[in-house]
């Protein structure tokens, strides 16, 4: 009986952490995308950026994981400079690296 209770408690905690982790990832994406301004000269791109964070949520560094157009590099770096910090979260949720995909699926009909 005690083993079953412990297993249920562990499963509930794992579920809570998984949900909190998903919410934290959504917060990171939403914060960065809110700060991101698309460049004037647009193309279809997918720029993957790895962020290094400290425990306080401060962005320590970033690196592009693929080649991106200079206009996009500038606009993404500007968004990172604007954000600077994410909220602090408990250790079960925190990861010191986060990969963010900035995607612009521009088509000729979407440029006006």
CATH top level is: Alpha Beta
Q: Structurally, how many domains make up the residues?
A: 1
Count of β-strands: 3
Taken from the alpha-carbon principal axes, the silhouette is elongated
Report the mean per-residue pLDDT as an integer.
Answer: 89
Helicity range: 40-55%
| Topology pattern, helix = H, strand = E | HEEHE
Protein name: TonB C-terminal domain-containing protein
In summary, what is this structure?
By secondary structure, this protein is an alpha+beta fold. It has helices at 2-35, 70-83, and strands at 45-53, 59-64, 97-104. Strands 2-1-3 form a 3-stranded antiparallel sheet, with helices on one face.
Structure in words:
The longest helix is centred in the N-terminal third of the chain and has 34 residues. The model has no long low-confidence stretch (mean pLDDT 89). The chain has one domain: 2-Layer Sandwich (Fusion Protein Consisting Of Minor Coat Protein, Glycine Rich Linker, Tola, And A His Tag, Chain: A, Domain 2). It is an alpha+beta fold. Strand 1 and strand 2 form a beta hairpin. It has a three-stranded antiparallel sheet with strand order 2-1-3, covered by helices on one side. The protein contains two helices and three strands; from the N terminus they run αββαβ. It comes from Photobacterium kishitanii. This is TonB C-terminal domain-containing protein.
